[in-house]
Amino acid sequence: MLRGTQRVNEKGHLTIGGVDTVDLVKQYGSPLYVYDVQHIRDQAKAFQSAFSKYPSLTWHAAYASKAFSSIAMVQLANDLGLSLDVVSGGELFTAMKAGFPAKSIQFHGNNKTIDELDYALNVNIGTIIVDNFYEIECLEYLCKERQKPVNILLRITPGVEAHTHDYIMTGQEDSKFGFSLVNGAAEEAVKQVMNSTYLQFRGLHCHIGSQIFDTEGFKLAINNIYKYLSKWKKELDFSCEVLNVGGGFGIKYNNDDQPLPISTYIDAIVTTVMAESDAHQMPIPEIWIEPGRVIVGEAGTTLYKLGSSKTIPGIRKYVSVDGGMADNLRPALYQAKYEAVLANKASAKDTEVVTIAGKCCESGDILIHDAKIPKSESGDILAVLCTGAYGYSMANHYNRLPKPAVVFVENGESKLVIQRETYEDLIRFDCSYSQEPTH
Ligand SMILES: *Cc1c(COP(=O)(O)O)cnc(C)c1O
């Protein structure tokens, strides 16, 4: 059940990166997000070694920063040789403040505002992944105004469903994202951007879903794309320099999840692209991918303190933590399943089945149903595992809970990378309505 550098020390405490999690809570408080930096490095390296089997190939792996965006994380991604995906002006701003090279940033989104596009062009962003006709118009206008070109990919929906949860399925025909291959929108977009003076059309992008556990979806998407690439080569003389097949590589939240090794996904993607290019007598394009969850998901752990508990005879026992849906929205949003360890009693036997409840005023604020943990008491520290992706990044202020701190741990040392919010932070943007302000 333990991941990366997680171990149990002689005190029976969970350690991460050689740091005792009980000490972490003493030092930084709770709830606390903890990232195992070595684990993040290992995930990035797994992509490098998977691609290194194909020395003639040009490839890029972009960290999808929506999974967890912060200055420290973006800097780490840069150190690890990843390029970067952003999906908003805020994520782009974070990347710029982190010193990330703009030329290695790709900008995504189905409704980038004029201001966001303007900002991206001002910083000389590497690539804009164009989602729709309105965006083509906006970019034409903005680029013309400043007489400056921009590299673009077109996001297409390849009409493929990856096995995943409905809410996070984005590759099928009925999607708010991208140009449909099947209904002709993609072809119309290709014609438009091929004729553009300012939009430097480099290729196509697709993202077929998230938490994907097989290679079939990627292969089918690539097969479908090549049907059109072959047509467009003949009819439009279009050649695709870059094929970006997105992210979505699955991770193991619990035993129901059976992700494949990273190299298995990459082998399937690369060999399918190579075979299709060969079959259609096209040069092999650069292959770009965009892993988010698989880079940071398993590396993240949330530490909570246990408080109240409630036993309903014959029904269940609730054990409450000092956080919940404000710091981890995924169980409430996607019925996501997590595992937990009692961090200060990590070598004790699991003897109880309890429901781990959050502290928010919502009956649906349950982090884990039927968690198996040792006998617990208030003050114990609960580690919920695998919270590194879409945890802090989806955190919110529901019930006016301040957002927790985030620490990186590695080689026996911890480093604060995001401060804990205070009550003062919560009211920073509030304006008083009464004549005599009370605060
Ligand atoms: C969310 C997203 C990703 C990353 O997805 P993961 O499941 O976290 O790997 C990559 N590309 C696009 C376009 C996305 O929207």
UniProtKB/TrEMBL annotation:
The active site is at C361. PROSITE patterns: ODR_DC_2_1 (PS00878). It comes from the Bacteria. Substrate binds at R293, R330, Y334, E362, Y390. GO terms for biological process: lysine biosynthetic process via diaminopimelate. SUPFAM superfamilies: Alanine racemase C-terminal domain-like, PLP-binding barrel. One of its GO terms (molecular function) is pyridoxal phosphate binding. The keyword Amino-acid biosynthesis applies. The keyword Cell wall biogenesis/degradation does not apply. Signal peptide: none annotated. The modification N6-(pyridoxal phosphate)lysine is found at K66. Pyridoxal 5'-phosphate binds at G248, E290, P291, G292, R293, Y390. Its cofactor is pyridoxal 5'-phosphate. It catalyses: meso-2,6-diaminopimelate + H(+) = L-lysine + CO2. Pathway: Amino-acid biosynthesis; L-lysine biosynthesis via DAP pathway; L-lysine from DL-2,6-diaminopimelate: step 1/1. Keywords: Amino-acid biosynthesis, Decarboxylase, Lyase, Lysine biosynthesis, Pyridoxal phosphate. Residues 33-388 form the Orn/DAP/Arg decarboxylase 2 C-terminal domain. Its EC number is 4.1.1.20. Residues 38-296 form the Orn/DAP/Arg decarboxylase 2 N-terminal domain. HAMAP family: LysA (MF_02120). Homodimer. Belongs to the Orn/Lys/Arg decarboxylase class-II family. LysA subfamily. PANTHER family: DIAMINOPIMELATE DECARBOXYLASE (PTHR43727), GROUP IV DECARBOXYLASE (PTHR43727:SF2). Specifically catalyzes the decarboxylation of meso-diaminopimelate (meso-DAP) to L-lysine. This is Diaminopimelate decarboxylase. It comes from Terrilactibacillus tamarindi.
